[in-house]
Each structure stands twice: as structure tokens, then as C-alpha cells.
């Protein structure tokens, strides 16, 4: 069992939100043991703290949002994924806008920022959530299943299936460690079929998002962009899964299998895991 960790000193990432197109600065700052990960909306007259915990999650389309006292932070999954995979348990994420920056659609800039300052031990034990039984959410075609760990940490098997077309069917099995995350997941970008992108923009959102901000798939493949891996799409799905499951609030020791899952099912599984851990603690 490792100790809780935080970053050694503050570091910032600057970008623009996909949905709002508002500029935002994300500043990671050290926090003491037991603090967990907390977002701080510093742009408000009275700053509001929003814990990165599953009971603060709200349903949203194509992203993970958190809310506290009516104040929201949007699209937090890439930030949480980078922190969790880097072993950062305690951190204040100070932001000056509601939505996190889209950047290039990946978590690479967040990982690089964390790596630039490093992490340090806080002395107190991390107390991971170790899955003891098997839990499943979803239906026959779209689901997430979590079972006891195969080692001291997190491993994932993910199957993506978009049917006939350029995205197609992809799968990935990975033991998630800081090193494997950096090399295999951090640079994997958000993707969307061109028809879905057009529908979003016709509804008045993501109006400033271009082909360089994420991967838009036309009938023949990426439009105005190129893939970093042939299976970049499934890699990004695993990146998102790591971030959404970080809402359990502590290191997760489990084996996760998923098929065509997204933020809604990932968040539902995080809720199941927290509830299950609570039942065991009170037994």
C-alpha cells in the first residue's frame, strides 16, 4: 500500500472549453493528506469548492460534470484521468471558468504539467478501494463490469464497436500504471462522427471546435487530421473510463471490462462501487 500523494508545487494549463469556447486556466495546487481532489471555482465572487466525488456528478451529454451548491464544473474527465493515473490523490484544481479546456482532445497537457513538477508523499496511507465481488451495469450490448483486481492496481479491457465504417470495432487490454498511461493513453484524443458533430453545432454548441481540436470522422476516416494510433478511439475510451472511475475518491484496485460504455455508465459504476464499499465498511 502506497501513501497518499500530491504535486510538489503549483502548475497551470491554459486552454478553451469545447462547449462554451470560453478561455480557462486550470491550476493544480498541492493539498494536504485526506483532502482528495477538489475543484475550486475561483472566478466567482465567493469561490466554491466542488469535490471530485461521485455524489457530486450530474448527468450530461458526452462529458462528465460535477456540481455543488448549484455551481458546476464541466468536462472534468480528462483532468481526473490524468491525476488518477499519475497517482495524485490530493490536489486543489483551481479554475477560472465553468468548463475545462478541450486542448487537443486528450489528457496529454495535464499529464505533462503534473510531470513537470512531480509528486510527493504525504505520509498517510492511500487506502485504496479494493473490489471484492463482481458488479455490472448496463444491458446486453452496452455495459461495464468490475471484478476483483488481478494485481495491486487497475486493469482494463475495453471493446468499442461503431459497426461498419471508419471507426469500426476496436479493443484494448491494458494494465494502467503511470508509465503505461503516459505511453498508451494520455495522447489519445476525443473523437466524433461528422454527422454527430454537425448535429451538435446546429443546436448551438461547440461552434468554435475545429478539426484540429479533436478527431472528426467522415465516411473515409479522420477529416483534416490523422490518427496517432490505428486504435486511438478505444484508447480514448479507456482514458475516459479511468477519469470517470476516479470519482470513487481513492485509488481503485479492480479489473474492469467494458463494452461500448460512456460517461453515463462509467459514472453509474463509480456509484455502485462507492455504495458497495460503504456496505462492507458498515457490516
Strand content: 25-35%
What class would the helix/strand composition place it in?
A: alpha+beta
Q: Roughly what is the average pLDDT, rounded to an integer?
A: 94
CATH class identity of the domain at 3-127: Alpha Beta
The third-level CATH topology of the domain at 3-127 is: Ribosomal Protein S5, domain 2
- How many strands in all? 19
Distance between the termini: 23 Å
Estimate percent helicity: 10-25%
Query: What is the number of helices?
Result: 6
Rg over CA atoms, rounded to whole Å, is: 18 Å
CATH superfamily placement of the domain at 3-127: lpxc deacetylase, domain 1
Do you know the CATH architecture of the domain at 3-127?
A: 2-Layer Sandwich
The backbone outline, from C-alpha atoms, is: globular
SSE succession? EEEEEEEEHEHEEEEEEHEHEEHEH
* Poorly predicted spans: none
Q: Describe the biggest sheet?
A: 6 strands, mixed
Amino acid at each position: 500500500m502506497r501513501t497518499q500523494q500530491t504535486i510538489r508545487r503549483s502548475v497551470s494549463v491554459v486552454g478553451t472549453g469545447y462547449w462554451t469556447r470560453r478561455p480557462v486556466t486550470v491550476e493544480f495546487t498541492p493539498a494536504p493528506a485526506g483532502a482528495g481532489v477538489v475543484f475550486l471555482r475561483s472566478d466567482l465572487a465567493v469561490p466554491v469548492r466542488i469535490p471530485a466525488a461521485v455524489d457530486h456528478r450530474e448527468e450530461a451529454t458526452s462529458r462528465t460534470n460535477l456540481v455543488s451548491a448549484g455551481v458546476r464544473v464541466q468536462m472534468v474527465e480528462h483532468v481526473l484521468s490524468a491525476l488518477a493515473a499519475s497517482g495524485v490523490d490530493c490536489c486543489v484544481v483551481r479554475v477560472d471558468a465553468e468548463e475545462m479546456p478541450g486542448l487537443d482532445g486528450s489528457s496529454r497537457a495535464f499529464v505533462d504539467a503534473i510531470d513537470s513538477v512531480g509528486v510527493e508523499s504525504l505520509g498517510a496511507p492511500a487506502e485504496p478501494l479494493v473490489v471484492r465481488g463482481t458488479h455490472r451495469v448496463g444491458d446486453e450490448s452496452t455495459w461495464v463490469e468490475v471484478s476483483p483486481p488481478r494485481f495491486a492496481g487497475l486493469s482494463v479491457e475495453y471493446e468499442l464497436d461503431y459497426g461498419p465504417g471508419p471507426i469500426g470495432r476496436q479493443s484494448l487490454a491494458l494494465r494502467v500504471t503511470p508509465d503505461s498511461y503516459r505511453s498508451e493513453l494520455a495522447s489519445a484524443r476525443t473523437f466524433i462522427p461528422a454527422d454527430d458533430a454537425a448535429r451538435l453545432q446546429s443546436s448551438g454548441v461547440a461552434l468554435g471546435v475545429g478539426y484540429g481540436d479533436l478527431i472528426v470522422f467522415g465516411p473515409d476516416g479522420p477529416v483534416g487530421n490523422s490518427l496517432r494510433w490505428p486504435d486511438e478511439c478505444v484508447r480514448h475510451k479507456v482514458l475516459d473510463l479511468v477519469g470517470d472511475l476516479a470519482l470513487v475518491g481513492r485509488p481503485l484496485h479492480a479489473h474492469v471490462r467494458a463494452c461500448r460504455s460512456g460517461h453515463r455508465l462509467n459514472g453509474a459504476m463509480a456509484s455502485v462501487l462507492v455504495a458497495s464499499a460503504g456496505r462492507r465498511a458498515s457490516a
